[in-house]
């Protein structure tokens, strides 16, 4: 596994690297202290996951998310930031981040984020889940999970029948969670864009949600992972 750490504080990157090495001894770590270097390494060195700070000397982390969602739409990016505001978390999810770990979190939260994201899930701290649900007007019940308890209780990923979905709907959901727009999902699945848009509408209706951000919050709250997906021969990640 290859992990890219993008943060301008060398001491923080060193500490994060030690935690990741402790969890995954065979990991290969890449370091970047600027936004431009981080984006370049994410594109050229093909890491499996990126941990991204928001406050960088040459730009904001959201700018990196914008660039990466176009250049490497399937790349899982987890934001690691001292900013714990609901607005910042929601903005990063809209830009297709697959996780958000506050710098005040425990090492267990970092482990949970890596396991969740690499298993096709998402990671959000419990406080962010509550705040995002309240902001979306869906805060019917308080999220009861703590950061430490958030690693998935289910060892195996969920499947289509377990979520009440058809196989095609399930595959659409898995690509949608990874941040791909409908045209890119259609390319990967060999379908027309209008067909994928119908699947997305069915998914949101199935879970009684209105947009992808609410879907991400629901998956994080329930600890749902969707497994890894193979890219059909001839499909380009940039698509």
From TrEMBL:
Keyword NADP belongs to the record: no
CDD domains: LuxR_C_like, REC_NarL-like
InterPro entries (alphabetical): CheY-like_superfamily, EvgA-like, NreC/VraR/RcsB-like_REC, Sig_transdc_resp-reg_C-effctor, Sig_transdc_resp-reg_receiver, Tscrpt_reg_LuxR_C
SUPFAM superfamilies on file: C-terminal effector domain of the bipartite response regulators (SSF46894), CheY-like (SSF52172)
Pfam families, A to Z: GerE, Response_reg
Keyword Ribosomal protein: no
Keywords annotated in UniProt: DNA-binding, Phosphoprotein
Residues bearing PTM 4-aspartylphosphate: 53
Gene Ontology molecular function, alphabetical: DNA binding
Domain Response regulatory as annotated: residue spans: 2-118
GO aspect biological process, one term: phosphorelay signal transduction system
Residue span of region Disordered: 141-161
Residue ranges occupied by any HTH luxR-type domain in the UniProt entry: 157-223
PANTHER family: HTH-TYPE TRANSCRIPTIONAL REGULATOR YHJB-RELATED (PTHR45566:SF1)
Protein name in the entry: Two component transcriptional regulator, LuxR family
Species the sequence originates in: Paraburkholderia phytofirmans (strain DSM 17436 / LMG 22146 / PsJN) (Burkholderia phytofirmans)
């Amino acid at each position: 596994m290859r992990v890219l750490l993008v943060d301008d504080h060398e001491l923080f990157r060193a500490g994060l690297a030690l935690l990741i090495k402790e969890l995954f001894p065979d990991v290969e770590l890449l370091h970047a202290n600027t936004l431009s270097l981080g984006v370049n390494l994410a594109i050229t060195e093909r890491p499996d996951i990126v941990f991204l700070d928001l406050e960088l000397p040459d730009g904001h982390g959201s700018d990196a998310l914008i660039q990466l969602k176009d250049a490497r739409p399937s790349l899982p990016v987890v934001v690691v930031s001292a900013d714990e505001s609901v607005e910042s978390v929601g903005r990063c999810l809209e830009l297709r981040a697959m996780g958000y770990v506050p710098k005040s979190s425990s090492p267990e939260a970092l482990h949970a984020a890596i396991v969740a994201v690499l298993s096709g899930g998402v990671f959000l701290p419990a406080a962010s889940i509550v705040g995002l649900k309240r902001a979306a007007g869906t805060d019917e019940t308080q999220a009861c999970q703590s950061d430490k308890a958030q690693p998935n209780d289910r060892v195996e990923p969920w499947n289509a029948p377990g979520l009440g979905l058809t196989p095609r709907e399930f595959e659409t959901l898995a690509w949608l969670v990874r941040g791909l727009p409908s045209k890119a999902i259609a390319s990967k699945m060999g379908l027309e864009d209008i067909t994928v848009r119908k699947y997305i509408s069915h998914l949101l209706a199935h879970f009684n949600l209105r947009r992808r951000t609410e879907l991400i919050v629901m998956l994080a709250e329930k600890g749902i992972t969707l497994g890894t997906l193979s890219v059909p021969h001839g499909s380009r990640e940039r698509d």
